[in-house]
Amino acid sequence: MQIASTISTQNGLTFLAARSNSFGRHTSRLNPLSRQASVLNQTLTTESTRTHLSNLDKLLQKKAPPPLLHKDSCNGSSSENRVKNPLECLNLSKFWPEMKAAEELSPRQLNRLQRLLSMSAERSPRNNLGSRWREYHGSNDWAGLIDPLDENLRREVVRFGEFIQAAYHTFHSNPATSEDDSLFSRQVALPDRSYKVTKSLYATSSLRLPSWVDDFAPDLGWMTQRSSWVGYVAVCDDQREISRMGRRNIIISLRGTATCLEWTENMRDVLVRVPGGENTEQNLPAKVECGFLSLYKTPGSNMPSLAESVMEEVRRLMELYKGETLSITVTGHSLGAALALLAADELSTSAPDMPPIAVFSFGGPRVGNRAFADRISKNGVKVLRIVNSQDVITRVPGMFVSEELDQKLRDNSMVAEVLNVLDNMPWAYSHVGTELRVDSKMSPYLKQNADVACCHDLEAYLHLVDGFMASNCPFRENAKRSLARLVTEQGSNVKKLHKSKANDLSLNLDNQPVYID
Which PANTHER family match (predicted)? Predict the structure, then answer.
């Protein structure tokens, strides 16, 4: 591979060092320390640059690159230390026998390929939200910010999704829960270093599998444990970020279903009454799914319930930062989205001076009945549900298939009374809050027949949010998020063209960061 020296030395060092790092050592996609590497890389010498170039060529099985060229700016030519975009130097026809040379690719195709092979996501600007933070936190139910999608809101939604990815990563790195776990906070690699984790959270099932299950599969004992690490509480601890956001934010992040008992609880879909009061307008008790409430309220043998942990930690942080402007953001995916609603509902009534509460949920199921939805709205909790039209999880449990049809029927006084009777049925579920609807079929990278797992996948959700412009617009061309992780986790659902090219280039997609900050 012949690489001309036409970019600045500093940019070349940064790019090449990042490439070498991803091939050379295993780093977590969610590890903030990977950001520090880019700073250190800028101090490398020219000799080190040649080494990186040589290593890169060996990986791509090409010839060693020529030394960096330096033109004399005194002779009328500017100093050129810039290394060409590697895509300009690759013989794409060799990698892609079904396509012609790179110069015949359209600019749009080349741009997509560049982002597919990007070693990290481009960085979206962090705009100052100080004067409008309540609006972005849902004070007006995100009116005028969703369709078309406001750029600042897009960035906030993706960032909250990455907090959930950190919860998934932490759990899967050590799924077992010991008796001493509740005494310490797990090490969580947060996607935003301006936050610090203050509390680990555990969910406990009220069910218990037979003892013979552990005997049958002793290596999978963690699958039958009743209490599992489910998320964390974190607080913004950086004064510059607090100033940018206009307040100090407390985040409660909750992962989705991962253990056998959690899946079993998901199936217990009969509505049960929430402790606490009734809807005064319709005189109907607020009810939620039995399994969700069980995971939220059940204490473990050696640890408090998820509800107790959340309430205790939020009160502690409110006291610690008393006098400051605070907000509470609860975010979760799948089961975590359901638990997020339960936590937000209880927080809203736990103290008269409770800060504004907003829920950002991804791929969440229905949680309770209409009285529960009305109760959350009445208590001032703002909910933004991010929903993929192809995700079946967002349509269960419940008897109503279409929320829009349900509302239209209720607007008709002739059938409203009948529907009020149906609200008392055991499976009369209703969604909560404002909806941001995306569609996996709009992505130019995902197959039209992507499977259920892909349509519910959190990374697929963040990919779709990053590309969403408006309900009547195509996927945006200037999407910032790297495709590396999507290819890694949902390769079978990525269009063959993009998947095969990534494989041909032997990219180490397992270690790609996905930060957007």
Answer: PHOSPHOLIPASE A1-IBETA2, CHLOROPLASTIC (PTHR31403)
**Catalytic positions, written as ranges:** 334, 391, 456
Tell which of 438, 463, 487 closes a domain: 438
Of the candidates 341, 201, 226, 334, the residue with the CA atom closest to the CA atom of residue 274 = 341
How many folded domains does the chain comprise? 2
Query: What is the H or E stretch that residue 195 is in?
Result: strand 195-204
CB atoms within 10 A of CB 320: 10
Residues 257 and 406 in one domain: yes
Spatial contact of 273 and 286, defined as CB atoms under 8 Å apart: yes
Question: Which residues have a Cβ under 8 Å from the Cβ of 68 and sit 6 or more positions away?
Answer: 5, 9, 12, 46, 49, 50, 81, 83
DSSP 18-48: HHHHHHHS---TT-THHHHHHHHHTT--HHH
Beta strands in 211-266 (DSSP E): 227-236, 248-254
Question: Considering the domain boundaries, does residue 13 fall inside one?
Answer: yes
For residue 215, is it within any domain? yes
Statement to judge: residues 184 and 322 lie in one domain: yes
Q: Which amino acid is at 59?
A: L
**Minimal CA–CA distance to 505: which of 210, 91, 99?**
91
List of E strands, 109-161: none
Residue type for position 22: S
Whether the Cβ atoms of residue 462 and residue 480 lie closer than 8 Å to each other:
no
Q: CA 82 to CA 102: how far, in whole Å? A: 20
Of 414, 438, 462, the residue that ends a domain is 438
CA 53 to CA 76: how far, in whole Å? Answer: 28
- Parent domain of 62: 9-89
Pairing of strands 271-279, 227-236: unpaired
444: in domain: no
Both 73 and 164 in one domain: the answer is no
User: Chunked in runs of 10, what are the mean pLDDT values of the chain (517 residues)?
Assistant: 40 40 40 42 49 52 42 39 42 40 52 53 70 96 96 95 96 84 82 94 89 67 83 96 96 96 92 75 82 96 94 97 97 98 96 95 94 93 97 83 51 54 66 95 92 96 95 87 85 76 51 41
Three-state DSSP at 441 gives helix
Cα–Cα distance list, 386 to 79, 337, 397 (Å): 49, 10, 17
C-alpha separations of 405 from 138, 295, 393 in Å: 25, 31, 19
Q: Is residue 431 part of a domain?
A: yes
N-term to C-term CA, the chain = 33
**Cα 248 from Cα 325, distance rounded (Å):** 6
Helix, strand, coil percentages, rounded to 5, for the chain:
45, 15, 40
Query: What's the Cα-to-Cα distance from 185 to each of 61, 180, 337, rounded to whole Å?
Result: 46, 10, 22
pLDDT at position 321 is 97
